[in-house]
Amino acid sequence: MAQLAFHNVTLGYDRHPAVHHLSGEVASGALVAVIGPNGAGKSTLLRGIVGILKPLDGSIHLGGLDSRDIAYLPQSAEIDRSFPISVFDFVSTGLWRGAGLFGGIGKAAREKILRSIASVGLSGFENRPIGTLSGGQMQRVLFARVLLQDASLIVLDEPFNAIDSKTTADLLALVKRWHGEGRTVLAALHDLEMVQNHFTETLVLARGPVAWGPTAEVLTPENLMVAMRMCEAFDDTAAACAADDISSRAA
Amino acid sequence: MAYDVLIGPFTEFEFMRRALAAVIALALAGAPIGVFLMLRRMSLVGDAMAHAILPGAAVGFLLSGLNLFAMTAGGLIAGFAVAILAGVVARSTGLKEDASLATFYLASLALGVTIVSIKGTNIDLLHVLFGNILAMDDQTLLVVAFNATITLLVLAVIYRPLVIESVDPLFLRTVSRAGGPAHLAFLALVVINLVNGFQALGTLLAVGLMILPAGIARFWSRDLTAMICIAVVAAAVSGYAGLVLSFQTRVPSGPAIILVATVLYVVSVLFGRIGGIVRQLFPGRHLEA
Which residue in A14, A50, A83 has the most chain B C-beta atoms within 10 A of its own C-beta, making it the best mutation to test that interface? Predict the structure, then answer.
């Protein structure tokens, strides 16, 4: 059963495509790595999936999911770290779907929040303001919130950037736990070794899709070369795209 | 002696009691709004909004004289129009909120000054600009108390999305559509409290009883709830002390209140527990862990 289906999706900014004519399906419960050079459209694709960015063309089907059933961890979260809020309160916002505007945080919910903070290894940090955390600790906090969101589709945008190996290992274990629980996970990544060892399916993106399938078949030097050659800059004078259903390699 | 100075004026004169009641209402509602303005880096937005209100108040004044209901209604309309237009433009285009607000409040101010200069007297304008908390009648006091009540109720409703939007706007956008309405409701509360403040302090100083207490609170706590409480207390204390100062000296009441708040602010900057200057100069020996 498809959790996610792309029908000739083009996503972009000011009519310039950043993801060009992408079609395909992600099965429910899949663990998908999205790889490609900077500017390949990885973040754009993920933003399209969670609904922050409307497709310029084509459509994305969420298989009956509400956008609130998706947990999204952006690459550079616009988090105001100077805001006076504790780790506990920050993580508890992950319960928004159940609690909403007025729902109380009862004893059971408090237990859940404490458990998710413990699962990312931050027990004892509950009352610390988020402004006092290190980069790695903040990433752990964000994972704890994703954990609490209890989403069936989890979208992670370069979650291990600038994160040390210990933290990466801990957080990767969480990702694999989500996979084990039957959740669909999509992650934009740069570490090819990690992709090879831990992700079953891979999408190589270079504005257009270069290859998509089982990691072992997709992660070839040829595919990576094609992706690397993709030109990064938009062409300001580009004409309107005439291609309809072909999956073009690059703009 | 101390009784005569600190409490006597309020037992003796009704206008002082009214003024005290008004200033406490302003503190209860305005200070929490000020804390959010500061945390959302919108301190100067409050100031700009205060200017945007002026033309509406002036139109109300020209239409029905020195009637505070008409001026309040005019101020609310002008303020809401500017706040909502600026908010909508910022949300539907790439323009930052401060830039779009600057455009609209300047247009509003220019319009207002034009209206006032065509018709109107200087003395009445002075009242609008600097307010007069010592001339509160029952009606005005009720309006102030009513606005403060509304503010606290609405703030309670939008509190959660407002906090989340301040910390992590992108997250709120992915889980809820409450961010936009909460933001607009917050801007509306800013306007209501500015209008409230200008009855007492005038358009120019109204924002002072919101922003200064918030700035004071920042130096004493890292916890949002505590900051709001500290800001309310600081605003009420400034209001009370300002009234006493104004009564005993010849300092006009509005400026006296803001000057007391300024003194508290300077003390906080110097000796505040969180990032105060003295604390930074003499931090003590570094800890073991």
Answer: A83
Chain A residues whose beta carbon lies within 8 Å of the beta carbon of residue B179: none
Q: Please, which residues bridge with residue A25 across strands?
A: A5
Compute the Cα dihedral for A107, A112, A117, A119 and give only its sign. Answer: positive
Instruction: Please give the ipTM for the structure prediction.
Output: 0.84
Q: What is the C-alpha separation between A251 and A244, in angstroms, rounded?
A: 13
Residue in the structure block whose two tokens are 């005993």: B248
Residues of B in contact with A101 (CB under 8 A): 157, 160-161, 178
Q: Which residues of B touch A86 (CB under 8 A)?
A: 223
- B175 — contact with chain A (CB < 8 Å)? yes
User: Is A60 strand, coil or helix?
Assistant: strand
Task: Kindly determine whether residue B222 and residue A83, on different chains, have CB atoms separated by under 8 Å.
Answer: no
3-state DSSP call for residue A16? Answer: strand
Helices (H) and strands (E) in chain B, counts: 15, 0
Phi and psi at A18, nearest 5°, equal -110, -30
What global pTM score does this model have? 0.85
Q: Verify whether the Cβ–Cβ distance A101 to B224 is below 8 Å.
A: no
Give the side-chain half-sphere CA count within 13 A for B107. 13
Tell me which DSSP letter residue A128 carries: S
> Are the C-beta atoms of residues A34 and A189 closer than 8 Å to each other?
yes
Q: What is the pLDDT of residues B212-227, one digit of tens each?
A: 999 999 999 989 999 9
